[in-house]
Amino acid sequence: ELIDIPAPPPVPISSLEKLSLTFRCSYLNLHLQIWVSGGMWPSGLIQSILDWLHIDLPWWGCIAIGVLAVHVAMFRLVIKAQQNAAKMTNNMPQLQVLQQKVIEARQSGNALEASRMTYEIQAFMKEKELDPFKNLKVSLIHVPVFMSFFFALKGMANSPVESMQYGGLSYTICDPYYILPMLTSVTVWATMELGADSAKLSSQGFPIHPFRQVLHHDEFLGAILCYWLTINVISLVQVGFLRIPKVRSHFNIDPIVVVPPVKGARPKK
Fold first, then answer.
1. Distance CA 250, CA 247 (A)
2. Residue 166: exposed, middle, or buried by beta-carbon count in 10 A (0-12, 13-18, 19+)?
3. What is the mean pLDDT of the chain?
4. Measured between alpha carbons, how far is residue 163 from residues 15, 64, 102, 229 in Å?
5. Which of 145, 157, 167, 147 lies closest to 220, judged by CA?
6. Please, are residues 102 and 114 in contact by the beta-carbon 8 Å criterion?
7. Largest CA distance in the chain
8. 20 pLDDT exceeds 90?
């Protein structure tokens, strides 16, 4: 009888070839996940850029570099908003006087005087180059950028992208140690305080407010909180940088002048 000859064993593959094959499969799988979740939408383009950065960097570094690049690209808009905000603040007392005169003219039924004062307000704003909507325009530009990053990271974390689950903190789940929610809450509070130009900290608001915010942030995924935390830190640095007198002078940002109440302006209630 003839004995069945077994099939020849497979050719051994070196460990380097196995690693290369595993990397290619993982990389193609990641690209497929990104294409399905974002496609050619802005969020999909952001995912592709973050994926490219992740070749040499951890995910937190990719997110930080992406946020920093966007802030640098939009820095000129921030400067224009600061210039306009300083002009509005310094000219607000005179503007309030003119607005009060318009109100008084309308209340007295003097339409001609009200029209004249309205024209005077327009001339005053044109002379001082005041635009109350300029800062709103800058904020509206930031909204789609924030939402694009938000949906990009949310899509990658929900897929989930495998590399986001390993190598330290898992960006695909909520932080079980509450470190990211706490840091995000503190930086949100600090950004609000500095943005409002508050002269001093409230003795009650300082210890309580960040802990309140943790209750709202503890359900966000790690990738979202990492992005949010990076935005807040960069915003704090930016606000502090633009408060330096020499920096404000370099960018032609008027110093904020403390103007005493002008006679004729309606007192605040």
1. 5
2. exposed
3. 79
4. 21, 17, 63, 21
5. 157
6. yes
7. 122
8. no
